[in-house]
Amino acid sequence: MAVNRPCGVFNETYAEDMAIVRTRFQWGLMIVSLILVFALPAFCASRIMYMVNLIAITLIAVLGLNILTGYTGLFSLGQAAFMGVGAFTSALLTKYLGLSFWVALPCAGLSTALVGVFFGLPSLRIKGFYLAMATLAAQFIIPWLFIHVRPDLTGGTDSLLVPVPTLGSIEFNSQARMFYIIMPVTLIMLFFAKNIARTGIGRAFIAIRDNDLAAEVMGVNLFRYKLLSFFICSFYAGIAGSLWAHWMRAILYEHFLLMQSIWLVGMLIVGGMGYTTGAVLGTVFIRLLDQSVVYIAPVVEAVFPYWVGSAAAAIGPFVFGLVIIVFIIFEPRGLAHRWEMFKASYRLNPYSY
Predict the structure, then answer these.
(1) Whole-number Å distance between alpha carbons of 229 and 267
(2) How many other C-beta atoms are found inside a 10 Å radius of the C-beta of residue 147?
(3) Burial class (CB in 10 A: 0-12, 13-18, 19+), 166
(4) pTM, two decimal places
């Protein structure tokens, strides 16, 4: 007879064995969690909702990067630039062409995916460090285009104002209202990212990551699947960029520079590459760490008065770099590895040894 703990569940089909949610207790926990999440705007301040929205948008970009780097083993330093493509595409479509946000959102994802495929073409010949340099080119070329190509449309070095999303007579002009756009989209993207590794496409990605030559010998089309990985990764970045543009309501090329791409890679390192759970844990951990700097900086400035004005700017990158070094040395598989160890112990309870 099935019990609440997964070790007591007897599976009769492969579908049951592969299920992500396996017990009634887990189903109940998931439903309660979703209810609590969507009830957040009712009892949380605007500042907290700002952080929740920021984490959710960032998570979409990190999920896409995890598909490219964690699953396929292709390294990218241009994810923030691809977010910029999605952001400016959505902004231009809604501001100048008058399209609805709901049309601009998928258009931003698709246009960014095509740009990502273009910059992913070198992956057919190079990999590792050299591929990272190729994607780094995108990180410099794309922001340059935002500034110099039709600055009358993109705003150039100035901010570009973005229309507020609407649904009928409802305007999503607050943190709480934008939450009800951002969170459902994030959950949908999370669902597909979680399940892609369980498909034939996901298994081809993993085969390329483990040994691309062996994968090719076994019949995996490297040309197709590498470009498909870049397509999916960039699509996620475009969706994140579109949400970012309409959430911020004013975008600037400086939002999508190299440092932002490095932060996204750092989130993946801390969370654990190749794990959807790792992308979630890493994003939440780094974003909360970044936010904590805002409260730590005044304390540091009070202790060291001659650092006034520089502590806030210096502590963030310093702590971020320190955390990355610590995880690479002591926990290279990220927080997701610890989570998997906890789940294994939980499932075997009370025989956790």
Answers:
(1) 19
(2) 15
(3) middle
(4) 0.91
